[in-house]
Amino acid sequence: MRFDMNNTVLRQMFRTLARLIISACAVALMTACANQGSAPIAGAEVNSQPAYVSTQSVLPSWQDGNARSAILKFISDVTREGAPSFVPTEARIAVFDNDGTLWSEQPIPFQLAFMIDQLKSAAPSHPEWQRSPAFKALMAHDVSALAKNRKELLQMLSVANSSMTTEEYDQSIRAWLASAKHPTLHRPYTDLVYQPQLELLDLLRANGFKIWIVSGGTSEFMRTWVTRAYGIAPEQVVGTQEKLKYVVRDGKGVLMRQPGFDFVDDGAGKPVGIFRAIGRRPILAFGNSDGDREMLEYTATGPGPSLALLIHHDDAEREFAYDRKSPLARFDKAWDEAVARGWVVVSMKRDWNSVYPGPKAAAAQ
Amino acid sequence: MRFDMNNTVLRQMFRTLARLIISACAVALMTACANQGSAPIAGAEVNSQPAYVSTQSVLPSWQDGNARSAILKFISDVTREGAPSFVPTEARIAVFDNDGTLWSEQPIPFQLAFMIDQLKSAAPSHPEWQRSPAFKALMAHDVSALAKNRKELLQMLSVANSSMTTEEYDQSIRAWLASAKHPTLHRPYTDLVYQPQLELLDLLRANGFKIWIVSGGTSEFMRTWVTRAYGIAPEQVVGTQEKLKYVVRDGKGVLMRQPGFDFVDDGAGKPVGIFRAIGRRPILAFGNSDGDREMLEYTATGPGPSLALLIHHDDAEREFAYDRKSPLARFDKAWDEAVARGWVVVSMKRDWNSVYPGPKAAAAQ
Against a cut of 0.90, is the pTM above it? Predict the structure, then answer.
């Protein structure tokens, strides 16, 4: 019996992280140079039309259309007792990607912004970094120098985000979230959740669904804020898993964060993460990029009724526009598969009346 | 950044499994030779006395004494609003080991009995095994020959319990549980859950606790039956994790079981498994062996009130008696730590009026 670990996902994570960091620095550079003001964020003026009788009041931020109709029809189908499409409550499992599906993820995933800030905060304790070409490149927003020194940068990131207890790390995430602002939208990151999705989560819960977040980010990062933001309990978060070691420190049992990951919850990892955490196949999955493709496929090829949805970020005015050629969160293969299999592609521009919660959305509820 | 996996736990799992299999075969040999009848299973005649006013009706299978009093006092403390010991509902996390804590585990953990039966069932598809010294030793209950060929036996076990989808494996567990019987008690394995623990689970739930099973067994094995047996949902099971690979087969996304484990949920692995699944430190932990020591320590050294409990299997008449010198599920270091730290040691003989559910227990409820 061989116990060798699957290093493929780790290599993939390494490459992905490296690519993201380079992108992050490019964006930081652009942002610094442009010194631009706040991007406009406003709800569209279109009023939603009822898809079904007596559903006017649900999903008010969803514009009437194929996406909204498909959601309402699916919920109606699986909750109608006696119908062949009926699904008992305990099997009403819904899974949502987080970055780009429940909140924004541009210009870089917000957890990565946090990790880079952790590295900067840790720098005074690491005087040796001052001589590091990678650190110098990061501070100078020198993208080409970063690309040349990315392995060293990853090592520094890993050090800055480990060697502490999970409780200390948790505190550092909370402290960061309390003060950090998005580089171009100039709002706290936790403001950048999607209003239409909050309404969908509420509607699913009201119809007996249990909802999990299934994200490439780490569970630990998400758990500090998802209950407040989405009403989702910490134990309903499935994410990438950092290495941990149990030790006793000052008479107290604690978990020390170790460099590296034990499990990467992305791509073909998502069905594995779902099965391990939930033990059942979901009947609804919502994503936005190629990293969600397998999660949607796993959901959509189950034995009973299912609904697979993907957000297309096509709204540069209210949020961001990126798809097939995006260096991160690429939406390409998943788009092709959506077309081929009849999955629902949600256009942020056409299907959502509003993007972020605001006075207008709050008043409408 | 190094991505090497922690092979220590895997080596440990390998050694443990090898030891268990040898024990299993020794037991099978003894059972075959003795050809003994059914062991007596009966509730004791002692009636429980109320620990507190108005608590007569709770925990009827628990004999009045330190253990029952400690449980009732703890529940009262953490649920009394306004008291310094009050714990809000969302933090009322309880974790229970499974084998030996919620159901019996002798003469060998029941999942291991299943795995060996899987191996025997798979034998016709593996004619090469007929020539294997390990397989011959297993079929002949030849313990010393098994000890010499344990690596080969582990390889066969691993093969017999992989190379199928999670859904196929799930069906094979259900089929086995429906017909398999305990070798000496001659009852279905799922009958061998502990009546006093069923009452404790009910009482905790009634007081706002959310309960997880945290076991060295695999989540997959437990999830097929724990909801029916204990009222615990599949997603509240934390266990050892087999390797899985997502593939598309006949157009359907499935998870193929691979040989080996990604995570071993035992000893110092239990706090890691708890943190990853729940994200919070429990306030109540219940175990019965050295493999639970770190879980109890992690729980008992948390910042607020906590209760750590261990069952001492000292009841050879109604169940089994084993502790410091047991080759499996040894209760030695955890016992010492319980004494040193004031954890509650539950004597099965003195603290439980009944062991398994029966007509008497059912009538009392």
Answer: no
